[in-house]
Amino acid sequence: xxxxxxxxxxxxxxxxxxxxxxxxxxxxxxxxxxxxxxxxxxxxxxxxxxxxxxxxxxxxxxxxxxxxxxxxxxxxxxxxxxxxxxxxxxxxxxxxxxxxxxxxxxxxxxxxxxxxxxxxxxxxxxxxxxxxxxxxxxxxxxxxxxxxxxxxxxxxxxxxxxxxxxxxxxxxxxxxxxxxxx
Length: 182
Description:
By secondary structure, the protein is of the alpha/beta class. It has 4 helices and 5 strands; from the N terminus they run H-E-H-E-H-E-E-E-H. A 5-stranded mixed sheet has the order 2-1-3-4-5, with helices on both faces. Helix 2 packs across helix 4. The chain is extended, with a radius of gyration of 23 Å.
């Protein structure tokens, strides 16, 4: 009888704590928490997937509540009015839009009379990150562009090139993992 009573009490406690959550989504879970909307870029390329992953790593709890939106915005649609409406809809303080302007990753076999019969890799990239700050009402862009050409044995991983490009962007990007204005 004591075991049954103990089991029922435990079940009631677990059920009440599970359903005690407030149902309003606009409440902050942590003090000084900000909401950032990451507009998901087209995920059909290495570069787009990598940029989205790096942004998700930068904006995490307890300082950032990252909301991913699958709305695809072209560079011509990146206006302050469109981003302001998106921020208002999601109650966000920051809108971040990664844009892959150019991504070419090409590996080819070189052959000829005096060549060493090698495989080569050629990479050209132009990555941009747009950030709209609701508090300041400003839209800023951060860009990394470059090209590389080397033997396939040396330059064989696109994520190394993307990592270097995103590191350049994140150095310029003023919004860090832990906000500086706390």
